[in-house]
Target: DUF4190 domain-containing protein
Amino acid sequence: MSIPPPAGPQQPYGAPGPYPYGHPGYGPYGRPVSINGLAIASLVLGILCFVPAVGLVLGLIALAQIKRKGERGKGMAVAGSILSTVGLVLWTLALTTGSAADFWDGFKGAATGEGTAFALDKGNCFDSPTGNLEGEAYDIDEVPCSGPHDGEVFAVVTLPGGAYPGDEEVTRNADDKCYALQDGYAMDTWAVPDDVDVYYFIPSRQSWRLGDREITCFFGGTERDTELTGSLRSDPTTLGLDQTVFLSASNAVDTALYEEPEEYAEDDLAANKAWAKDVQVVLGAQIEAMRGHGWGPEAKQPVAELIEEMEDARAEWARAAGAKDADAYYEHYDNGYDYVDGPTTVTAREALGLDTTAPTYEDESEGGGGSDDTGGIDV
Model:
């Protein structure tokens, strides 16, 4: 942006020349003669060596204006022009040798977080200097997961290229992807504390222009300054085969249960019956998967007892799917939920060396007629 030159000193009425009081450095009534603004701009740009061509042009224009208007700043204009000329030579050399490309790549890396604390990978833990996981983040420090930390990354998702889709669309993508991926990293959902929820870093409009396309999903405390201790990771890289098979089956059933329609059965019996049918099908598939697995000696009997309860629940969900009215539906609905997180599940988990403290749930849905539903804090 060009900088307009300041107006020269006004002359008193009838004055014969530009310096009526005989001193070339002062205007009327002893007021100092103003310094040419373009001279200042030329010197600044010359020192910074950021846009040397502009600094050189401004310096030459400033010299002409100073001569015509009697302003000060000739030394700054000359220095700015010389420094800008040197900078222009260096930029030309950089462009012909490829050094400018290296500089720009480094600049983009710094802006997008590459090579900095923002270049987080799955399994990394970090601290926020402010202890706040919401709003804009300008700096974070990677720390060992074994000690206290503010967040633990469980997934990194790359968005497709193209124009920036807008804050709302990026946030929607982050919600959809991060919440869907959390159980793949923390398969033992009972081991995730109740005061921990899902957060994410998303690209801003500015970082998108520099190539930033990553959504970083992480666990963090729901209260400011709440710290995590130890890793929440429980996946095939940290679990045994028996544990992995058990949790895969349990999480598949939980996912089906979480998809309960928002409308009560009284308002939309057909939708609730269709969902009950889906739960029955998922239960059947997971029962077969658990029966087909060779369990260790300690887990064999507890898991077999749990499978029997799952069979009873599957029959109840089948009856709910065929219910004639809402009352009959809810009777079988409640019976189908009886085994969930019950004593038999706890015994099986204990035999497998998994967490045995059942999570608590908040009912935040507008629908759902029987059991508690999952809750969470929007980010």
Notes: Residues 28-97 form one domain. Residues 1-33, 103-117, 364-379 have pLDDT under 50 and may be disordered.
